[in-house]
Design brief:
By secondary structure, this protein is mostly helical. It has 13 helices and no strands. α9 runs antiparallel to α12 and α9 crosses α13.
Length: about 230
């Protein structure tokens, strides 16, 4: 399984493959989903996260006293998502240089963990986290919620695939959502489900609400198909 440094380098070189475009918001959500899966699978302590302290470091660098995430700070400084995306890598490199050797070594050790099942609580982001986002979206998603949700799920799924974790039942079920959305809107453009829903919405916030409505419709349709098959 790749460590964070390798993942970030890959995203920097090929952002379209991972997050569709150079975007600081997409990058932040993707990495959050990726690391969330590592915590779930390996039972890592978030304090061992290689980016631990980066948020505070950016606040100090930007001389900002209000509480903001590192991606929000960099976006504020750079104005555009693209500029902020590339600025992040410059800032993160400087951040690592300011860490002493012991902390850098500690981060590298956390990047290749040994599984500790005693610390793992088994649950599924497609089940529990989606329910949490539906109830309180502001706790998880901020600037571009429908896009951030898409990236969060992509990062989570990538990390699971890297260590060979078979898809859970909710994850398998979600895999069909893309084709269902395409069929529902009569679109065969290769665009992601989030972009399709956003295209037919006023803004990102309405798109997020519409996502949950569509996802519920999709799940109910699947249940109806299962009942028909069982009855047949």
């Amino acid at each position: 399984m790749m460590n964070l440094s390798t993942l970030l380098q890959n995203i920097k070189e090929n952002p379209v493959i991972y997050i569709d475009k150079p975007s600081i918001t997409c990058l932040s959500s993707f990495v959050s989903g990726w690391y969330f899966s590592r915590i779930e699978h390996f039972g890592l302590n978030p304090q061992g996260y290689p980016m631990q302290g980066f948020n505070e470091w950016m606040q100090e660098r930007a001389k900002i006293t209000v509480s903001r995430s590192w991606n929000e700070i960099i976006l504020f400084l750079c104005w555009t998502e693209r500029n902020a995306f590339y600025r992040f890598f410059e800032e993160y490199e400087q951040f690592l240089k300011h860490k002493d050797d012991s902390k850098i070594q500690e981060s590298e050790e956390e990047a290749s963990p040994t599984r500790d099942n005693s610390k793992v609580r088994k649950f599924d982001i497609y089940d529990e986290i989606l329910k949490g986002i539906k109830k309180r979206p502001g706790m998880y998603l901020r600037i571009n919620p429908i896009t951030e949700l898409d990236m969060l799920l992509r990062g989570y799924s990538l990390a699971r695939r890297e260590v060979g974790i078979p898809p859970s039942e909710p994850e398998k079920e979600f895999e069909g959502f893309q084709s269902w959305v395409e069929e529902k809107y009569g679109i065969d453009s290769g665009q992601s489900w989030s972009k399709i829903i956003l295209f037919y919405s006023v803004d990102e916030y309405e798109a997020l609400q519409k996502f949950f409505e569509l996802f519920e419709e999709y799940l109910n349709r699947n249940k109806s198909l299962e009942l028909d098959e069982n009855c047949g």
